[in-house]
Structure formats: C-alpha cells, structure tokens
Design a protein that fits this description.
The protein has 685 residues and is mainly beta. The chain is 7% helix and 37% strand. A hairpin with a 6-residue loop joins strand 40 (526-529) and strand 41 (536-539).
Length: 685
C-alpha cells in the first residue's frame, strides 16, 4: 500500500472513530500505529463504518433481559467489558430489590446501589466476571433469584458516548480528567467510602446547570450549591468538583459515570455522521398528547426526571421491556427498589425522538422542567447476511406456557404467523412498537389485544397460559436494520402532503400501511411499491389489482428520510387516527424488492448468492391475484411447494408454482401470465 493510500485510510479511520481519538480502554493512551493498521485491516477500507464496531450503538450499549435460575451462569449481550472499560447496571423486575451498579475499573465484585446512599460493598456472588461478550453472575438474589425476571443495561466506554473515572478526593475544589472528548451531558458521582448521596450533574438541569445538582438516590428537585461543581461547567476533557463530601472529601475514593451529549457531532453510524446519545430537557405543558422532543433519532433507552417544579423519580424506560406506542409502558426508577411498573401509558416513540402521552406530574406538569438521557435504537448498520435479520420456522405443537413459539437468533421487531391447516385462520402481524397489539394481513379490523410479549432476547413470547391448543404453524420474524426493514407508528392529520419520518436510511421500495385505531370499511391495508410508482396502490388484504389514487401517497415518492401521504384516505392519513407502517428495501444478497412479467416459466434474478431464497412473496398487479408466500421451512423445491396467502384465511395448498434458480427463483407455467411484484429474502441456511 502506498503512503498516499495509507494516509487516506488513516483519515477515513479518524472520521469513523469520533474525533480520531483511538482510545484503548485498557490503557489511557492513544492506539499505536499497529493498532491503527489493524483497524484499517491492511488498507482495505471500502466502507469505513463497517471496520470499527464501536461506530455503532449496539457495540456500546445493550439492554439484556433474563430470568434467574439461582445457579452460576454467563449472560451473552455482545458487549465487550473484558478488554474495554464500562458499567453494568442490573435491576430485578419482578420483585422489589436494590439496583446494583458494577464497573470494570472497580472490579466485578465491587457494587454500588443507585437506590441508596450506602458505600461500596464487596459481594462475590453478584456479578462475578466481565467477559468479552457479556458478563457472569452468581446466585445472589439481586441478580439471579430462581424464576425472577431481570434487566441489565451495559454501557461500554467510548469517546462521545460514555466514560468511567475514579479519583481520590482532596477536600478543595479540583478538576478531574475524563475521556469523553465532547460535551458532558450527564454525570453520576458516588463516594465509594461513605454513605453519601449520588451527585448528579445534568446539562439541561437549569439555565446554569453548573450551579445546581440533583440526587440520583432520591426524588428531590434540583438544588443550588456551589460546593458540588464549584459553579464550573465541565469541559470536553475535565470536570470540576467543589468541596461537598458527596463529591470531594479529602482522602476518600469516588467513581464518576459520564454520559455524553451529541449535538449533530456524534460521528457514529454507517455514514459516520450520526448521534447516539443526547441529554437535554423539556418543559411540560399538562396536555395529552404533550411535548414532542426531537432527538434526531428513535431512542431505545430513556431516563426522565422532574428537575424543576416539584419532586419526581428517575424513571427508566427501554424498548426491550416495552416502550409501547399507544399502550402502557414498563418503568423502573433508579432511586427506588420497587418492582417494575406496568400500569400507565407515558411515552410515544417517534422516528426522531419521543412524545409525552400523559399528564402525570412526573412527566408532564405544566409548570415543570424535566431532564432526560436518551440512547439511540440499534440497527444502524446495513446487514450482510439474511440470517441476521430474518427467520422462518414451522411448529406442529400447541403454543402455550410450556411450548413457546420458535426461537430466533436475534432480537425480533416484527412477526407474522399463520395456522397452515385450519380453514378460516387469520394471519396476525405484530411489532415491538405495538406491544400486545396485533393486526391481521387478511383483515380491515382495528388493532386487537393479543397474547404476545416482546421482552424476549430471541423472538417473542406469550402472555397467557393457553394460547393455541393445537396447530401447524409457520412463523416469520424480521429485525429492523438500516437499508433493510423499518417500522414506524404515526398519527394522521388529514392534510395532503403529510410527511412521516422513518429510519430505514434508504428510499423505501415497498410499504405496508394500516390504521391501528379504527377498522372496518375503508380501513384496508395500503401498499406502496416502487415499480407501481407513487400514483398507485394495492390492498394487502384483498386480491384487487393496482389502482391509481393520489389519496394514498400524494403522488410523491418516498425519500431516504420521509414518506408522503395524501389528505383524504382513511387508509393512510385520517386526522387523529393512529397508523403503523412497515418499510422494506433491497439489500445486496439479503433482500430484493422487484417486479417481473410472467410469460410461461420465468427466471427472476434477485442477485443472491448461495441457496434458494428463504422467503418469496408474489402479487399480480395488472389483474386480481392473491398475495402468495413461500418459504424454505415448508420447502421451495423443484416440484410442488406449499403456499399460503396473506389476504385470505384459506388452508395451505400444494402446487408447482416456484422453483429454485441460481441467484433468485423461477416461476413455472402454473403461475398465470401477467405483471407481478415480489419481495424475496436470501437463504438463511
């Protein structure tokens, strides 16, 4: 590699790792040239963001749920806390108990409690080790009671995201160095040697946050005292502590957890220009719906605290336990030992932030100020293998508390299942953003209350002891990922030209849109497809041919950030009604959205390598026709294949319609001649 090429690659690398600070968390220095060469992978730099895992939030933060079994075990969350610094925070969900916070600098056996002011304790049976792909736990009730449910939040140190610092107090105002290399958004400090309160600095606390403090282990409102931060704001390299015992007693040891604030300068993601964490504030208005907070991204983790105007707990939300659009959200409180709360609807996630759905004084009092810390949802990286984002299984047993739906190799964001052999069986479709809600691809019905749960790390679960007594099912599961698949919820306003943000990161090539809040006549599933254009639509729940009407897409093609809607259609944009949209796109060797004209047997190229596709969806557009779907679990072979239809409740049929074909699939002469759209997913074998 030439010197010129090497220099260019180093420059590319510095754009991926925020500010070019190649921090090695095991040491305090900058990576040496050999480490830089490893990062560049010998000069092969076709896509800079793919080289460094720390450019993506899923390598820096994970919410991981598990059920205790009272035996020593390891938990895999794919966060490296063995060779990198970081924090692990665990809370029992099903019962009241203390939070436990343990970090890699103090060591696995050293714990602190956000729900109390106690000094650092040593416990050999809570977190027993930090691993390169997660952590190990012992048998202590705080982390591993048999059949109890738990949540763990892992934060890995990385410039512009998170840092862990330990220091010794001096008793006089001083500065402490840190490695965030950007704006400090929020800072938690605990005296390890004494029963002192947790000191909290937050950049959005008041107009002069360096003069005020909050306390993590209480619900108290903000207070003014120069002894905490010496009335000095932190910088990108140091923070200042005053003389208060909670932050700087002479000879006593402290730990500080620093969370960054990205302000369009994060440097993360596949383009290398995205934010993943924001710490800010909002003013309540006492309305429902309430204030809209624009983060520039959809969050997966939120901590919200009433800071000015009254007391309020430190409420913690995450998408794994459930932040449900239009339904109850699951909450924990950092200062409280209580079990998880499940009774209220608080937050509406948007593709660019969140909106308050409550008038509770804890979140939306008309005279109060609230601070928050938000972390971006994962899926920032374009997938390279279909098996990372799609799964299909068949199951011939009853689905109940003893026999859950088949497991997936990833966290699922959307699922479809179908009873193959029962005439009249519908096709439920459900997404993480809906919680227990579900719709049916064959129906105009309003969203129903299902029996699904989403607090699973490998698919979805059931919330009832008896769900289906018997059956023969096929299950499809999708994971949201850049360029591949996205889910958006929104509220219509009835105006022509309404634009809805999305996080697909590319132009959607197919969209399925359904009203959630209303059903019946005029509430069909509206389908957009790139090869039909922005003037036409299909109905997912009928056999109807494509038709033209500007009420659906406002005769406007979607972009890589928004899609447009007409102002009349009840199916996509009626004022005050709530909707869900599923967005699909082509990813090389993963998925293909396209069309073809059938004229006898036809070979359809998808650009895939390897085996037969794992999923094929076909729909005739120039005349009536069913939404036929085939999959590798039931068999796509040279000969008869088993098919179902998304638009009806007919039992599975067997016919020779599709065959294997190198790089795609083939249709036989059994398929009626005409124009078709299709959606295919590559092999997951």
């Amino acid at each position: 590699m030439s010197t010129k090429d090497f220099t260019a690659n180093v420059i590319s690398a510095t754009k991926v790792v925020p500010d070019g600070n190649f921090k090695d968390s095991k040491a305090s220095g900058i990576w040496d040239i050999n480490e830089a060469l490893d990062l560049i992978k010998g000069g092969n730099w076709p896509n800079a963001a793919n080289i460094n895992p720390a450019a993506f939030v899923n390598a820096l933060f994970q919410t991981h749920l598990y059920t205790g079994n009272a035996t020593n075990r390891s938990i895999t969350n794919n966060i490296d806390l063995s060779t990198k610094e970081g924090l692990l925070w665990i809370k029992k969900r099903s019962d009241g108990d203390q939070h436990t916070l343990q970090d890699t600098i103090r060591g696995a056996t050293k714990h602190l409690r956000s729900s109390g002011d106690s000094s650092e304790g040593t416990e050999g049976t809570t977190i027993t080790a930090f691993n390169s792909d997660g952590f190990s736990i012992g048998t202590d009730a705080l982390v591993n009671t048999n059949n109890a449910t738990y949540v763990s939040w892992a934060f890995r140190s990385q410039p512009k995201f998170f840092d862990v610092v330990t220091y010794e107090g001096t008793g006089s105002a001083r500065t402490v160095a840190h490695s965030l290399n950007t704006t400090v958004g929020m800072m938690l400090i605990k005296n390890r040697d004494a029963s002192d309160n947790w000191a909290v600095y937050h950049r959005g606390n008041t107009g002069a946050p360096q003069t005020d403090y909050l306390i993590l282990n209480t619900s108290a409102a903000t207070a003014d005292d120069s002894a905490w931060w010496n009335d000095t704001a932190p910088t990108s390299s140091v923070f200042t502590v005053g003389t208060d015992h909670s932050v700087n007693a002479s000879g006593e040891k402290y730990v500080a957890y620093l969370f960054a604030h990205n302000n369009d300068d994060g440097g993360f993601g596949e383009p290398g220009d995205q934010d993943i964490i924001k710490c800010g504030s909002y003013s309540g208005d006492g309305n429902n719906p309430g204030p809209v907070i624009n983060l520039g991204f959809e969050p997966q983790f939120l901590m919200i605290k009433r800071a000015v105007g009254g007391t309020g707990g430190w409420f913690i939300f995450d998408a794994m336990r459930g932040i449900i659009t239009g339904r109850n959200d699951n909450t924990l409180q950092a200062e409280a030992t209580s079990a998880e709360g499940t009774g209220d609807n608080r937050i509406f996630l948007t593709p660019t932030g969140f909106q308050l759905e409550t008038t509770s004084s804890f979140f939306n009092d008309d005279s109060s100020t609230y601070v928050y810390m938000a972390i971006r949802r994962g899926g920032m990286q374009t997938p390279t293998a279909a098996s990372d984002v799609f799964d299909v299984d068949v199951n011939t047993q009853a689905i109940n508390s003893s026999n859950a739906p088949p497991r997936t190799p990833f966290v699922t964001d959307m699922g479809i299942y179908r009873d193959r052999n029962t005439d009249g069986a519908s096709t439920p479709i459900f997404a993480r953003l809906q919680g227990i809600g579900y719709l049916q691809t064959n129906s105009k019905d309003v969203e129903g209350d299902g029996k699904t749960t989403w607090d699973e790390m490998d698919g979805w679960g059931i919330s009832a002891s008896s769900w289906e007594s018997s059956g023969n099912y096929v299950f499809y599961n999708w994971k949201r990922a850049r360029g591949y698949f996205d889910v958006v919820t929104y509220t219509g306003d009835g105006s022509a030209g309404l634009t809805v943000n999305h996080n697909l990161g590319v132009v959607p090539e197919m969209m399925w849109v359904k009203c959630r809040s209303h059903g019946g006549n005029f509430y069909d599933w509206a389908v957009y497809h790139k090869d039909l254009g922005n003037t036409k639509y299909l109905f997912l729940n009928t056999t109807a041919a494509a038709a033209a009407n500007d009420e659906y897409w406002n005769d406007t093609s979607p972009t890589s950030s928004v899609f447009s809607l007409g102002g009349v259609s009840t199916r996509t944009n009626e004022s005050g009604k709530t909707y869900i949209a599923h967005l699909f796109a082509t990813v090389a060797n993963v998925s293909k959205v396209g069309s073809f004209t059938q004229s006898g047997a036809t070979n359809v190229a998808c650009g895939f390598t390897g085996d037969t596709p794992s999923f094929i969806l076909l729909k005739r557009t120039d005349a009536t026709g069913d939404w036929l779907h085939y999959d590798s679990a039931r068999g796509i072979v040279a000969g008869n294949d088993k098919s179902l239809d998304l638009n009806n409740t007919d039992v599975e049929v067997t016919a020779d319609v599709v065959d294997p074909y190198s790089g795609g699939f083939a249709t036989t002469s059994s398929l009626t001649d005409g124009d078709y759209i299709f959606y295919a997913i590559a092999s997951i074998a």
